[in-house]
Amino acid sequence: MRRWLAPKYFSLGSTLMLAITIGLALLGLLAIASAQTTTLIGQWSLVWEGARDNYTGTLDVTSKINDRVFSGKLHLIKSNGDRITEDASITVAASEVRIECSNPSVQKWDPDRFYLTRTGDRMEGYSLDTGGQRGRKIVLTKR
Fold first, then answer.
1. Which of 32, 58, 77, 119 qualifies as a FRET site for 138, CA 20 to 30 Å off?
2. pLDDT, tens digit, 9 for 90 and up, residues 26-64
3. Which of 92, 90, 95 is nearest to 113 (CA)?
4. Is the pLDDT assigned to residue 84 strictly greater than 80?
């Protein structure tokens, strides 16, 4: 029985071509992953069913800290028109996105945390603030 990778059938040239093909494929996958995280920068509209109220607003993703972490600002408008702004740290791991907020503009406001799944220009998930209040659903859409 002949083996598929027997030396007389698999030359050094073939080995080199296979290595180059695999290398180019891996570079292509890295470029796709990089493009997916880079497209996170920009403005995202949001609709949020929180634990105590409903909100609309925007998430402005302003800068890339490293391959997985971004920074930005979260601007919320409560159903009664009140406005809240928070700093946001956005961490990406494949399609999973975690947003951790800090420095809320309103006193006695527990900083928000969001756990999302991203598909293209849409992120959807739930919230759990630092006070333990869990929101039902949040949807962000890239503008």
1. 32
2. 555 544 444 445 589 999 999 999 999 999 999 999 999
3. 90
4. yes
Residue type, 56: T
> Both 62 and 117 in a single domain?
yes
> Is the domain of 128 the same as that of 78?
yes
**One domain, residues 60 and 95:** yes
DSSP at 133: P
83 strand-pairing partners: 77
**Cβ–Cβ under 8 Å, residues 137 and 48:** yes
Evaluate whether 135 touches 111 at the Cβ level (below 8 Å).
no
3-class DSSP assignment, residue 55? strand
Report the distance separating Cα 65 and Cα 82, nearest Å.
31
Both 13 and 46 in one domain: the answer is no
| Angle in degrees, CA 65, 119, 85, rounded to 5 | 50
Indicate whether 31 and 49 sit together in one domain: no
